[in-house]
Amino acid sequence: MLEAEFGRIADPCALRHASTLPARRPMLDRSPSEIAREAFKRLAEKRLPPTPENYQTLYHEVAGTLPPAYFPSDSLRQIAAAMPARNPGQEKQLGLLESAIGQRSWDKVGAALVAYGSFAAGPSSFAALEPVAADAQADAAAALVLEQVARLIECAQPALGKEDDRFAEQTAEVLQLLRRPQLQLRDARSVLGNYALRLSFAAEDQAEIRNGLLSLLNLVFENIGELCVDDRWMRGQIDALRNAATPPLNLRRLDDVERRLKDVIFKQTEAKGRAYEAQLQMRQLLATFVDRLSLMTESSSTYHSKIEHCARQIEQATSFEELGPVLQEAIAATRAMARDTVHSRDELQAMRAKTQEAEVEITKLHVELDRVSALARHDALTGVLNRRGLDETLQREVATARRKSQALCVSLLDVDNFKRLNDQLGHDAGDNALLHLTEVARAAIRPQDSLARYGGEEFVIVLPDTVLADAIAILTRLQRELTTRYFLNGKDKVLITFSAGVAQLGEEEAVADALKRADAAMYLAKRTGKNRVLGG
């Protein structure tokens, strides 16, 4: 009866007018369970929806106590997520703000916001550049700054395309104005403000054009793949091209994919040619076998005809002298038949041996083609799965988990301070650091888990038949392994750490949504100190 009352649609104004109802005596002498039952009864009587807020209000009304002050955690988190982190100080204060919201502490929230404001960036460079005294030193400094701005605009032009003639004309005018002698900074600021607005439109157009081209490329690749379902050579190339057209894009990644794709094309072309030759040889062997069978049949027919002829002559012979030539003819025919039979047997045995060799060669070629096609599903640098391989793994594991009603977790991890490592030690050291990370990760995770490179220094670990707490424990164990197995850059030991977020896939949840939750948890781990594993 009470549950039926909870399911009914309540009047949204009922709680607001609750004060008009007759007041009841506080139940200070009742136990908490009795107060809770009374609160549930009042929810049913007032026909209110059974939300936590309504229940809390009525519980304190029955108990005669004051409800705790409302704390808008969700709204504050939305505000914190929208606040930019333009410097390390602001980034730290935003992490403290997240922690204060989790503790529901107004004092700490206020302290974090005040500290955040103290790290605010100063006025923009153009706003700060006010006209100064017209002396030679100030003019020279202003001219240098304007020249640098002009060069910056020139360097940015190739990325913005040449499709918009009006924008190109406006760019030429701005460059000419910036290089005009005795240009006042106030005038330059006005011109650059207008140009910056037009520049933002051009940049958005180029971004949309790029995304549109990538979408068209992927559509072409998908259609070609559908037309070549049974062609493993073509499927391997299509998978590599799809991987190349998946953001984020950079020149280094495109060069790696181009090198791999050329290698795949060369090996596939070579293997396909060898397979064609083997199949052609097989057809020739079969044709020879059929011809030899025809000759054997013809020879057998001739032999039978001669034997019959000899038999008729023997029947008609009247003396031993007439039988001699007939017997010699029969013996000669028998010997010729025996020679043909032996020759055919030898040829057929040789053909059988060649056929077996061709079968072995074709089997080897199919194995090689499968190996070459698999290259398109693995990252060129680390050897772990790439985005294409990750998508296939996720589809398989999600289907298995839902068929067997098992848990499935995904973890997104990002190497801490990777840009600093690249800048200080070089890109080769950065690549070796990623190799070291994947080597340690493969040893730390379980055989049924899958490791994939998600992009740059980000990796995804798929953990089948694993609940959230166990998945966090596995990632934490990996962090401990990295602290005991240092990355060696020459003779120097370098400690590599990562921040990770883990999410357990919901019953009806899409994998993309689970990855987004893992990414949000990973970002929070970065903001609150790094080298942490958080659940999402």
From TrEMBL:
Catalytic function, reaction form: 2 GTP = 3',3'-c-di-GMP + 2 diphosphate
Residue ranges of domain GGDEF in the record: 406-536
EC number: 2.7.7.65
CDD domains from the UniProt entry: GGDEF
A Pfam family hit: GGDEF
PANTHER family in alphabetical order: DIGUANYLATE CYCLASE DGCM-RELATED, REGULATORY COMPONENTS OF SENSORY TRANSDUCTION SYSTEM
NCBIfam families attached to this UniProt entry: GGDEF (TIGR00254)
Protein name (database record): diguanylate cyclase
Organism listed in the record: Pseudorhodoferax aquiterrae
